Amino acid sequence: MALLLRLLCLCSALAVALPARPPSVTIGALFTFDSVIGSSAATAIQLAVDDINRDATVLRGTNLTVLMQDTMCSGFVGTIQALELMEKQVVAVVGPQSSGIAHVVSHVANELRVPLVSFAATDPALASTQYPFFVRAAHDDAFQMAAVASIVGHFGWREVTAVYVDTDYGRGGVDALGDALEAVRARITYKAAFPPGAGAAALSDVLVRANMMESRVFVVHASPDSGLDIFAAAQGLNMMDAGYVWIATEWLAAAIDSESGGSARRTGLVQGVVTLRQYTPESDAKSSLQARFDKSSTKSRRMNAYGLFAYDAVWASARGIDAFLGDGGNISFSADPNIRDANGSALRLSSLRVFDQGDQLLRKVLLANFTGVTGRVRFDPDAGGSMALADPAYEILNVGGTGVRRVGYWSNTTRRLSVRMPPISRQLQNATGQTQQQQEQELYSVIWPGDTTSPPRGWVFPNNGRPLRIGVPYRTTYTQFVSRDPSGGPDGVSGYCVDVFKAAVALLPYPVPVSFVLFGDGVKNPSYGELVQRVADGHFDAAVGDISIVTNRTRVVDFTQPYVESGLVIVSPVKTKSSNEWAFLKPFTPGMWAITGAFFLFVGAVVWILEHRFNPEFRGSPRKQIVTIFWFSFSTMFFAHRENTVSTLGRFVLLIWLFVVLIINSSYTASLTSILTVQQLSTGIQGLDSLLSSNEPIGYQVGSFARSYLMDELGVPASRLRELAITDYADSLQRGPANGGVAAIVDELPYVELFLSTNCQFRTVGQEFTKSGWGFAFQRDSPLAVDLSTAILTLSENGDLQRIHDKWLSPGTCDAQSTSDVAADRLNLSSFWGLFLICGVACFVALLVYLARILCQFCDYHHDTNGAGDQEGLSPEMERSLRRPARLRSIRDLMSFVDMKEAEVKRAIRSRSGERRLDRSMGASSVSEGPSSSLSRPSSSMSPV
């Protein structure tokens, strides 16, 4: 009982400490009643207030009322209506609808400390610390323009025309679009702004000027009430036909979604248009609200996305008020001494009151975190009070027939297009891993204006009456490439490069008017780097000429497909190698001649050894055999040897040797031909390595990039470089470094080929050490560069490019020569030691096999036929005396045996083998008769005849 009393006392104390909740709280609403957004927002706001007052968990006994003021699409009227609303001491304002009014009213809200919770002011500039009491209950246009940029990048368009209403809303959205396009390497090339409330004539005038530009990708950023007038004017100008791209921001989806009876009229104007709609996930609360909206609407309108955000904005304000009151907040207003009527003014500014607890209520509103009909509602104070949904996303819609169809989504989580529905929350995205983020950006097929499914090219040549300004280098040397037309032609320029450009332009499916402008003073060749920079700076629209495609230039301009292959080469003087009566000895070094001759004799001797016993052609007197060895050895050089080889080993050695002779003969012939016909370099420079290792001066052409390449890439000091005109090439090379000339010249291959065609005493040395080409330079992201690249490929395939080349760059008086000369070096042993090694090993193996066979036969031939018993009974001294002269006889016998014919040896071996078998058989028969018979019968020698 005592505990109960204590609780009652505590509750009473709390009731006394906390102020009582007010019976009602008033909020305001600022929007244009008679507008697509306002008509949807009015019903949604009222439904939200009714739902809040029926919900016992929100405000808990405090009734919420709303005061709505009509801004009438006027900035001035909107400001007055906002002041009147503030005069009625509202604690928060849902709105304003217009970004322009929001900029003005935000200053009033800052002064009176009344939070503004806007559901339709999407200007990104409002998310600024300048407006601390502005809370955006919708996505700003920075998200939407990022989605538009993703669409532009998906189809590869590079230039966009922005058509927008010239207000804070329109300008802020277009600025965000320009920033977003930079991420996909695109840009806004023309801004077509029209004033609010512009009539049909004014809109047509704006579109006519926009249509004169090259871009055919139009992004329309307007309001739902006037945006359709733009498409009506475009349809009258035939700008809704095939080849055009129209992308409308979310205002168009809002206009179509709001229409119930006249949707066919609206969609008939925007066939093929791509538009966006703020994505809100489907839910029971959203479906219920839409059903109740349809029953409550009195103007046959349906709810659009702005109505959904207005509904949640009211709920966010109510939850913030509830949290504020729950913490004991007390609503009070006080006068501001800075706001007063001066000099008898009747504006009644002194009636405006400051909301004393406005800062506290603002913090509570920003802490809102709940699930509404638009998804997860959460504010981020660090982002300037902008609403931050878990996954800000947009639906990509395509208008066709009598309605729209969804072709994809764009999610701020992935920052890319996808046909997959965006994830509900970041937590879900993290749980599913990176699969969706790694998914390839894509959309379903789009039906474009003109009922085509192929993505339009997105640009045409501008029809603004101004031809392209084409910069052409004013060359003073080798004018066959490009220069001023001395005959005074209609274009004022001529040359190979100009003809290629004209032929490529003729293949384009649209006319391209051009105006050629000479670049240079006509005294010396101009700087090509400066010409390219003029294109990048916008002084020229393009540059046509012998312009090399190098890295530093591709950073500032776009090049077409190369129409000439090029690269840096080295030119050096050459001299004719005079020949004399001993020129035939020069292919081989002395060591090579000595080793070759020695091997001829060595192989001849080996073959003689292998053939001597078998082949009668290798037998005879010693003098004849020596002559045979020499004759056979050197006759194999010409494959003219008369002696035939009959032994297997001899044929094996000869086969190997003839292969070696074939290689030696071929190499000798090639080297001798080169020595007698090829010109030799008069300097020691044989390529890039020798050029860099020397300290001799190097020439380069005036205006060429060769200077920067040699210095920056190869580290050649500037003191070694000499700037030369092509007309000075020959004189500088002939004089050489000793007489003030240069040792070599580095220039591009096309110039060098033309120079060498009339200067036969010079050659290129080494290989090309850069790989590039000549192309036409255009400003960055110019679509004309892409189309001309295709045209250049066509010229190459049909042979026109070669015909233009032959017309201007015909060969000179010099004979056709190789692009690189190779000095004829003498051949030495290092090039052939492998062949000699193979031949030597073959000879050595053949001799070993031959000697082993000879020794085996010799043992068989000199086998002791008398048996071991012949020497029985001899003393050891007598045996040693007999053995020593026997060794000498064996050596003489071996030499005689080697000189014997193979057939005689075989007959002797067979004969002695038969005698040994006969002796063994007779000996066996005498042993079988036994000793008794020898005693009983006298010896035959002693018996009488």
Low-confidence stretches: 425-438, 816-824, 864-875, 878-884, 927-945
Residues in β-strands, percent: 15-25%
Please give the count of helices: 29
Q: Count every beta strand, where a strand is a DSSP E run of 2 or more residues.
A: 33
What structural class do you assign from the helix and strand content? alpha/beta
Could you tell me how far the N terminus lies from the C terminus, measured between alpha carbons in angstroms? 176 Å
- Major beta-sheet overview: 8 strands, mixed
| Helix-residue proportion | 40-55%
Q: Using the CA coordinates, give the radius of gyration.
A: 52 Å
The spatial strand order of the largest sheet comes to 7-6-8-9-10-16-17-18
Mean pLDDT: 81
Task: Tell me about this structure.
- Helix 3 (75-87) runs parallel beside helix 4 (99-112).
- It is built from 29 helices and 33 strands.
- The chain has 945 residues and is an alpha/beta fold.
- It is elongated and about 155 Å long.
- The longest helix is centred in the C-terminal third of the chain and has 35 residues, at 902-936.
- The strands form eight sheets. The protein has an eight-stranded mixed β-sheet with strand order 7-6-8-9-10-16-17-18, sandwiched between helices. Strands 26, 27, 28, 29, 30 and 31 form a six-stranded mixed β-sheet that branches.
- Residues 907-920 have a biased composition (Basic and acidic residues).
- Keywords: Disulfide bond, Glycoprotein, Ion channel, Ion transport, Ligand-gated ion channel, Membrane, Receptor, Signal, Transmembrane, Transmembrane helix, Transport.
